[in-house]
Amino acid sequence: MKLKDIATIKTGLVLSRKKAALYEVKISYKQLTLKSFSNSTIVNSSTLDDFSSTDKIKPNYLTQKGDVVIRLRAPSVAIYIDKTMQGLVISSLMAVIRSNDLNINHRFLAHYLNSSIIQKVFNIAIKGTAIPMVKTSDIAELNIVLPSLTEQNKTVKIMSLLYKEQEVLKELSIKKQIFTQNILNTISNQFQEAK
Questions:
Q1: Nearest-angstrom CA–CA distance, 14 and 105
Q2: ω into residue 75 within 30 of 0, thus cis?
């Protein structure tokens, strides 16, 4: 089946149409940026930008719980929107995938879109030389094979644990580097004092 058969895929807002000058600001929003995307499907909240608008932005250009948002500019990474990330502005450099199909775990869909198989498809579909981008029509035409909802849920749990493990290992590596540097500093100080 094709992705368009189970979901709607829409491009985000052209920001210049709603961006306000300092004296025109009516409403402020938080905005997804290209740096907000990660392979773990989790939004990197420290990279959100402020967006000042001249008008209220239509809900279809704001993130909703259950959305899968994908970068159109390479690399085409997908993220899952949970309840803590609702109401963010989606720019035209991204596409939002929305589905009401109860047989789809949307976080699984984001992981699926980040898989190496789908990334190869995106790399073939990417158009443009100056700014390589995938088209929403290419995303809509993706052939997808979804396992049962039970299998999707299991996969999401496993992926979540694997990404948590990676984060713990990163933290441990940073702490070990600091520890190693402190030992070297202590040894150096002892040699200096011995002179």
A1: 29
A2: yes
Model confidence at 141: pLDDT above 90: yes
The pTM of this model reads 0.82
DSSP H helices in 115-148: 116-125, 136-140
Q: List Cα–Cα distances, 62 to 27, 42, 44, 94, 137, in angstroms.
A: 13, 17, 17, 12, 21
Burial of 106 (0-12, 13-18, 19+ CB in 10 A): buried
Residue 68 CB partners (closer than 8 Å, separation 6+): 78, 79, 80, 81, 96, 97, 98, 106, 109, 110, 113
Tokens of 62: 């704001």
Q: Report the percentage of the chain scoring pLDDT > 90.
A: 64
Please say whether the beta carbons of 36 and 84 come within 8 A: no
Task: Look up residue 91 and give its two tokens.
Answer: 């720019």
**Could you tell me which residues are beta bridge partners of residue 97?**
9, 68
> What is the rounded CA–CA span in Å between residue 71 and residue 90?
10
